[in-house]
Specification:
Layout: H1 3-9, H2 11-31, E1 41-50, H3 56-71, E2 77-85, E3 88-95, H4 101-116, E4 127-132, E5 139-144, H5 152-165, E6 170-176, E7 181-187, H6 189-194, H7 199-209, E8 212-220, E9 223-230, E10 243-247, E11 250-253, H8 254-257, E12 258-264, E13 269-273, E14 276-285, H9 291-306, E15 314-320, H10 321-351, H11 354-361, H12 363-377, H13 384-394, H14 399-413, H15 418-444, H16 452-476, H17 479-487, H18 506-526, H19 528-546, E16 561-568, H20 574-591, E17 595-603, E18 618-628, H21 638-649, E19 655-662, E20 675-680, H22 684-698, E21 704-709, E22 715-722, H23 724-729, H24 734-745, E23 753-755, E24 758-760, E25 762-766, H25 774-778, E26 781-783, E27 789-791, H26 792-795, E28 796-803, E29 806-810, E30 813-822, H27 827-839, E31 848-853, H28 854-884, H29 888-893, H30 896-911, H31 917-946, H32 951-982, H33 988-1031, E32 1033-1034, E33 1039-1040
Helix pairs in contact: 1-17, 2-12, 3-4, 5-9, 9-10, 10-11, 10-13, 10-32, 11-17, 12-13, 12-16, 13-16, 13-32, 14-15, 14-16, 14-32, 15-16, 15-17, 15-28, 15-31, 18-32, 18-33, 19-30, 19-33, 28-31, 30-31, 30-33, 31-32, 31-33, 32-33
């Protein structure tokens, strides 16, 4: 017994099964977390090493090179890149997609544990960080204060940070720009020397005094008392009374040679919110946590926490990732809703039956709800990828039900009883329905095999659409015939108003359309040559137009954020940097009224932690994060405003370099469209000269904006050069000299001061007035083993030299990267012009250049999509050949595919869109969509021929009979995609090109399916038809067995 026959004969069982599926799906939906993108673990692990006081050149030699050498043996390693900056080394290991990062982390730890032994003394232990989309901050709050500013860090820790950390799903809560508390011991070198003391001796005394030590146990009677010596400072003022030594019978206290201050750290970093001094609270969620729910819980708790703070502290939400997520999800939900409405109207228009429309529409919620079950079981989230997948599928899930129900309706209209009609009509088309579904699966399932970032994004699309379409097919051959057998009735011929009846109105329109198509088809079959020539010209013309199209990696959406990084002369003091920042602040306030709030960060925050991996910092750098009002509330786009800011920055003479990032900054987009030119070479001067020449050349290209160079200009530095003979003569060595200078300028390592469970640094060094001139450094006192005093100027000289502030490596070679952002010019066109500039340059043999960035990503994705296209074509052919038991039939059907690509090209040219990876994925999807209609048509032609019709009449009769179901499935897919293509809400720019690709390709290919496919069928089957006629002709009686009935 067939599955559809069983479903019709056991309606209650069938209904119960589908109700059970719906209940499970609704449960899954309520449990699904919401996010913007799927959780993506980028195949990269970074190794961060801090070596305070070291220059970039020292970091490269003593830290980065050692770590790179040891990491080079890690398995599945694709590329090692690194940047060596002052005080810091960052090495990034990029792996092949699909690598188990937990195993890779273990390998890296093993390699680092060996490398750590080779690192210089004073370097911190290397720290590992994984890259994941879930690790990006989901909330930023800005904090401003007045009287409470010095103690703001401790206040926030107690009143805000600790309570927020208790919220379920919170990963971490951090503070950027807080004025941390510090105990400063400023030594007067003259007083210190007058008592024959040194910094090292004072440091040793402080470390020896500031500790608690266990002293054993004391047994007294029946009790056993632990003994401990309590020596830690309980108050910062206790340091003043620490005894350092005895000099000429006089007790020398710390206060005699130094000033102790309980204060905030020296300002090397300035954080401002809308021009006011402040700081930022950064909130990250745990991996797998619901972004929207976590943000909702934080926003709900924050007003209560604010009430506990001093009145002068103001906390304001600056960036909330959940707002973008909710807006995008709501936009896609509306898209889904409108698509469903359009599908209902199309079905009702063509069938004219409310009951039939109801039966078909039931396919939509059932198919979509099963997708939610898959998402829940697989641990996925509701995100723009999964919802877009459902938007894509909604127009296709009714296709099979339309084909089945339309055939059942025809049998009912001919007088068959609904139950018999349901079984008999389904039997006629069930195989074609299954095969058309398999062709869709043959296209969408291989999407799960794409590698790289594109694969990570579209893998859910492949699974969701496949599961949804398969579910719709099962529903179409079980639930649809069952409901049809129970609900369908023969249409009544009587009507209260015959003139307004369906048959007299829409029915007549459709009949005339059937007649027009039949005449067109007969004309085409008579003039096959003309049809083929015209079709060939159209296809070749579209290919010629394709050469005029531009390409980009990913379409960018207006996320109402601008990030900017401004670089001034290297070595500039923070207070000088702030003067330029104030100029830019005024411009933003006066010329960009669309600004909702902006944040300014100037200088280097040594407490930035992991944020230092993503944000360039230094005393000469300014970083901006500009939050704009919603795009519905402004006339100018984020790209226009970014360009306006770039034009202004170009006019400020103090600015050496700048980088403006539309949708960048905090919570910015994951992908960008930029051209990166990597210049490999060891010699700094040669590669820098090439970079300058190339930047000048690229600047002449119209549309080349935001041209940045990754290597900063050389910064002035001071180096102490010991005279080896003199230091040896005085019983010194290079280490003692370096250690003495470091201890007096930066300070030696000291134990911490503890108060109420918190630890604060104790910083011991010369008072600022004694360490702000070269003469102060030259005057530093050194002591040899004989306790003889030697001035630094006697054994060394101080020289000024230029040093690169950052040194980049790629695959253990020095590299310099130029980044160019296209503005109103396609990415590929910009890359071609830049390559032309490079070809005309004289590049020395020891230097070579490579193109990277989004250009490389685009090339890799196009390669993957080309392989996917070939695989989809092969699988589609195999499925159709198996169904028809013919090698010709699939070939005939696949004539519609090239014209789908013609439609994609024309649609992009008409709308002015640039071709992107999203557009090309839409083009690949069309393979499975467009052959469905051709399969239904060809399958019915074969059925008519089996019933004895001649070739031409079988084609015409089948074309007229299948026109309405073909148009219905076409229009449901088109109108299902229309809201996606036309949407203008949050995140719409990303998916609009896919909708336009499908709409353009489907319109074009549908015309071809109904005209060219029948023509090609006749051409390929004419000889076969003649052989059959000759074989069955009765020459004696002059009659053929194949005459038409």
């Amino acid at each position: 017994m067939s599955i559809y026959g069983t479903a019709v004969r056991r309606p209650i069982t069938t209904i119960m099964i589908f109700i059970g599926v719906m209940v499970l799906g609704v449960y899954s939906l309520t449990k699904l977390p919401i996010d913007f993108y799927p959780d993506i673990d980028f195949p990269a692990i970074s190794v961060l090493t801090i070596y305070s006081g070291a220059s970039a050149a020292d970091i490269e030699i003593n830290v980065t090179d050692i770590i790179e050498d040891n990491l080079n043996t890690v398995s599945n390693l694709k590329e090692i890149t690194s940047v060596s900056r002052d005080n810091m080394s960052v090495v990034i290991c990029e792996f092949e997609w699909g690598t188990n990062l937990d195993e890779a982390s273990n390998e890296i730890r093993d390699a680092i544990s060996f490398a750590e032994q080779l690192l210089p003394e004073g370097a911190d232990a290397p720290a590992l960080f994984k890259f994941s989309s879930s690790a990006m901050p989901i909330l930023f709050y800005t904090v401003t204060a007045e009287e409470s500013y010095p103690a703001i860090e401790q206040i926030l820790e107690e009143k805000v940070i600790n309570p927020l950390n208790r919220i379920e799903g919170i990963g971490s809560v951090g503070i950027i720009g807080a004025p941390g508390r510090e105990i400063q011991v400023d030594i007067d070198p003259r007083k210190m020397e007058s008592y024959n003391l040194t910094v090292e001796q004072i440091a040793a005394v402080l470390n020896a005094e500031n500790l608690n030590l266990p002293a054993g146990n004391l047994e007294m009677g029946m009790m056993d008392y632990p003994l401990r010596v309590q020596g830690e400072f309980s108050d910062s003022h206790m340091l003043n009374d620490i005894v350092l030594a005895s000099f000429n019978g006089q007790t020398i206290y710390l206060k005699d040679v130094a000033t102790v201050k309980d204060t905030i750290r020296d300002i090397s970093f300035d954080e401002r919110i809308d021009g006011k001094t402040g700081l930022r609270i950064i909130i990250q969620k745990q991996s797998g946590a619901n972004t929207v729910q976590v943000a909702r819980d934080v926003n709900k708790m924050m007003p209560q926490l604010i009430k506990t703070l001093p009145e002068d502290i103001t906390i304001t939400a600056f960036m909330d990732a959940s707002e973008t997520i909710v807006a995008s999800i709501n936009n896609l939900t509306k898209t889904l809703m409108f698509a469903g409405i359009f599908v209902i109207l199309v079905v009702l228009f063509f069938l004219g039956r409310w009951r039939a429309t109801f039966i078909i529409i039931l396919t939509i919620p059932i198919s979509l709800i099963v997708a939610f079950i898959y998402l829940y079981i697989s641990g996925s989230t509701i995100n723009i990828i999964s919802l877009s997948s459902l938007s894509i599928a909604i127009g296709m899930v009714v296709d099979d039900a339309i084909v089945v129900l339309e055939n059942i309706t025809k049998h009912v209209e001919r007088g068959s009883r609904p139950r018999e009609a349901a079984i008999y009509a389904t039997n006629e088309v069930w195989l074609a329905v299954i095969v058309t579904t398999l062709t869709v699966v043959a296209v969408f399932l291989p999407l799960t095999l794409i590698g790289g970032m594109t694969g990570e994004l579209f893998r859910p699309l492949g699974f969701v659409v496949t599961i949804t379409v398969v579910t719709s097919t099962i529903t179409a051959i079980t639930l649809t015939p069952m409901l049809a057998s129970q609900l369908l009735k023969l249409r009544s011929k009587t009507s209260r108003n015959p003139r307004l009846s369906y048959d007299r109105t829409i029915g007549r329109i459709l009949d005339r359309m059937d007649g027009f198509y039949e005449r067109s088809l007969r004309f085409s079959l008579r003039n096959r040559g003309i049809i083929i020539i015209v079709s060939l010209l159209i296809f070749l013309g579209s290919i010629a137009l394709a050469s005029r199209m531009g390409f980009e990696f990913m379409p960018e959406s207006d996320q109402a954020r601008i990030g900017a990084s401004v670089e001034l002369q290297t070595g500039l003091r923070v207070d000088e940097t702030l003067k330029v920042a104030r100029k830019i602040d005024r411009f933003i306030e006066e010329q960009i009224p669309e600004t909702d709030m902006y944040n300014t960060s100037a200088g280097a925050d040594d407490q930035g932690g992991i944020m230092s991996l993503f944000m360039e910092s230094g005393s000469n750098r300014i970083n901006y994060n500009i939050s704009l009002v919603s795009k519905d509330e402004r006339d100018r786009t984020v790209w226009e405003l970014s360009n306006l800011l770039m034009e202004y920055l170009e006019t400020i003479p103090e600015i050496v370099n700048y980088d403006v990032m539309p949708n960048g900054g905090m919570g910015g987009g994951m992908m960008g469209n930029n051209v990166a030119i990597e210049i490999y070479g060891y010699d700094f001067d040669i590669t820098s000269d090439i970079a300058r020449a190339l930047v000048d050349s690229i600047s002449t290209i119209e549309g080349a904006t935001n041209i940045t160079v990754s290597r900063d200009p050389e910064k002035p530095m001071l180096q102490i050069v010991p005279d080896r003979e003199k230091i040896a003569m005085h019983g010194l060595n290079t280490y003692t000299v370096a250690n003495a200078v470091r201890n007096r300028v930066t300070g030696p390592y000291l134990s911490s001061y503890r108060e109420e469970g918190e630890e604060y640094d104790i910083v011991l060094r010369f008072v600022e007035e004694e360490r702000d001139e070269i003469s102060d450094i030259q005057n530093i006192a050194l002591f040899n083993r004989n306790n003889e005093l030697i001035r630094l100027r006697e054994v060394a000289r101080v020289e000024e030299y230029l040093s690169p502030p950052n040194i980049e490596h790629a695959n253990r070679e020095r590299v310099l990267t130029i980044s160019v952002t296209p503005y109103k010019i396609p990415l590929n066109k910009l890359a071609e012009q830049i390559q032309g500039k490079i070809n005309h340059m004289d590049i020395p043999p020891e230097v070579y250049l490579e193109m990277g960035g989004a250009v490389e990503d685009l090339a890799d994705s196009m390669m993957d999509l080309t392989l996917l296209l070939v695989l989809s074509l092969v699988l589609t052919y195999l499925v159709m050949a198996s169904q028809f038991e013919s090698m010709k039939m699939p070939f005939i059907i696949m004539f519609s595919i090239p014209f789908a690509f013609s439609g994609v090209i024309l649609a992009h040219l008409v709308t002015g869109l640039t071709m992107s990876v999203i557009s090309m994925v839409g083009g690949v999807m069309l393979i499975g969509i467009v052959v469905k209609n051709a399969i239904v048509l060809v399958d019915y032609i074969n059925l008519m021929r089996e019933r004895g019709y001649k070739l031409k009449e079988a084609i015409v009769l089948s074309g007229r009979s299948r026109l309405r179901p073909v148009l219905m499935t076409t229009f449901t897919t088109l109108l299902g995609m229309l809201p996606l293509a036309m949407s203008r809400g949050e995140g719409a720019e990303i998916w609009s090109p896919m909708g336009i690709s499908v709409i353009g390709g489907l319109i074009f290919s549908s015309l071809v399916t109904m005209i060219l496919v029948p023509v090609m069928y006749q051409i390929f089957l004419r000889k076969e038809e003649k052989r059959k006629i000759v074989a069955k002709y009765d020459f004696l009686n002059g009659k053929s067995e194949t005459d038409e009935p």
